[in-house]
Design goal:
Layout: E1 3-5, E2 7-9, E3 12-16, H1 17-26, E4 34-38, E5 43-52, E6 56-66, E7 74-80, H2 84-96, E8 101-106, H3 117-130, E9 138-139, E10 143-144, H4 148-152, E11 157-161, E12 179-184, H5 192-199, E13 203-205, H6 214-228
Parallel strand pairs: 1-4, 7-8, 7-12, 8-9, 8-10, 11-12, 11-13
Antiparallel strand pairs: 2-3, 3-6, 4-5, 5-6
Length: 231
């Protein structure tokens, strides 16, 4: 059953904009068709298309169920801004692997300083629909690396994947941790000064002897954390 994001209107859900265009013009759905709708909460809403207008449509809610794909841990990815192609992949894989929030940040070696919000929003919605999450993740405003220490204090565990670290990932670090932060660099990595700063506020870990691309490092770290925490 196809999945869409809309907004609640009493006992109905309204689709408009790109979601309505996809339903009507791409999928050529019509009144009476069945869909799953999401309104950015914990539920999947099983609906019937009951009214098709020129610019929007109404879905009648038949049943709602808790979304089984929602994460059970609160995981935030702090991602140094990479090239745009890498960022697209990082957003998709982070959502598939259970991240609740992404915080992009700039550093000494950051070449990209801004991103298009519309592109990011589209990536997030597509990825959430693909892996059947009913709630869109938060993508925070771009911040600076120097501001990360004050943001990291609210987490039960902060993991810093650093290529010059010798200590391998230890699963015991995750025991009884609910709110977890993960810090990943971009294709240029961290300066020595930046790495030393972050080490003071995190547990630095090695992902092995091979140097990984930033999107591979994200996938590897989040896969370990999600699987071991049953997230």
């Amino acid at each position: 059953m196809k999945r869409f994001f809309g907004e609640s209107q009493g006992d109905n859900i309204k689709l408009d904009g790109s979601e309505f265009n996809h339903l009507k013009k791409v999928l050529r759905m019509k009144e009476g068709d069945k869909v799953i709708a999401c309104i950015n909460d914990e539920y999947d809403y099983y609906c019937t298309v009951v009214s098709m207008g020129k610019n929007d449509c109404l879905l009648e809610i038949n049943e709602k169920k808790i979304c089984e794909a929602l994460p059970t841990r609160d995981i935030t990815l702090f991602q140094m801004l990479p090239k745009k192609d890498y960022l697209d992949n990082i957003i998709a894989k982070s959502i598939e692997l259970g991240v609740s929030k992404i915080v992009p940040f700039t550093s000494e070696y950051t070449m990209i300083k801004d991103i298009k919000k519309e592109r990011v929003d589209a990536q997030i919605m597509t990825a959430c629909k693909q892996c059947e999450r009913s709630k869109l993740i938060e993508f925070a405003p771009i911040t600076k690396l120097e501001k990360l220490p004050q943001m990291l204090s609210e987490y039960d565990l902060v993991l810093f994947a650093y290529e010059d670290e010798n200590n391998l990932f230890n699963p015991k670090l995750l025991e009884n941790k609910q709110k977890i932060a993960i810090i990943i660099g971009n294709e240029a990595g961290f300066s020595q000064k930046e790495a030393e700063l972050l080490k003071n506020y995190s547990t630095s870990i090695s992902l092995g002897k091979r140097i990984l691309r930033c999107d591979t490092a994200v996938t590897a770290t989040l896969a370990l954390v999600s699987i071991l925490t049953k997230n």
